Amino acid sequence: MQNSCRYQQGISLLSKIYIVLIITTGALFFYLYDSHTFGVEYTTPGAFAYPESYTPNCAGKNSGVADHIQHKDDRNMHFNVTTPTNYRSDYAHPLLVVWAPSGMSEGLSESFTGLTRQATEAGYVVVHTRSIPLGFKSLTSLSFIPAEVVESWCIDPALVFYTGHSDGGTVSNALSVMPESAFRPRALAPSAMGMQGKDMQAYECPRPTSVMLMHNKGDGHFPDYGSEVVAWWAGCNQCSQQAVASDFAGCVEYTSCAEGITTLFCEAEGNHAHWPGPEHDPIRFFSNIVKAERNPVPVE
Fold first, then answer.
1. 270, 265, 262, 228: which is closest to 250 by C-alpha?
2. What span, in angstroms and rounded, lies between the C-alpha atoms of 168 and 33?
3. CA atoms within 13 A on the CB side of 256
4. pLDDT at res. 73
């Protein structure tokens, strides 16, 4: 009888230990999620102040308001589409594609970067993709997503922009230079990407492309990768090798680039897991390009 009692007490203690471990693990997961993600005020779309007059576009397209509409294409790529809440089907919108970090769904990637409200209020249609293991075949499959969205919604194909963190940064950069890529962006803002300077040497320069390359100072996972890759972009963009302070926080700008192209290197405090979008503001970076395209400064 005494042995039986001791056995029952031992089982009870073991159960308590498991319960404590489960609670501790859950609390840790909640803390990490809460401290690395944005709330619904950032992931809910907003309205865009459309210009009073513009040339109608996209005749024949019956696109409408999209609030995180889910898609899976013929290549089994998953993504969602979100428009301004007052979306107009005859206005050519810029497109923002947010490529996901490793292992993240569309929704988790959106919560991690928190760009939806800001981007839709600035007039963008926003796409969040689902993460897949990266390789040349999968990257090529991902590269068709922007064209599919351009086909279905009223998008200006000359104003497509890429951003993303870690694997998402790698995708942003790779699809901008890979010859196999089905679509190349007007500008990109990759963060914490895993491509190095030596990787870039395998590629020919694309046409001059504006880039905001974000890489945190404390990124021990990919240390110093950003400085090597931005040097490659500065060379391809025919910039001066001199970098000066930028009006974007934490960034320096390579000067005298071709065709009015902007080339920025941005460093925030933080490790590899930190998304530095709030510090550097990639939406403002992209919107400057949109404004310059639509409201060109007259040459005197």
1. 265
2. 18
3. 7
4. 95
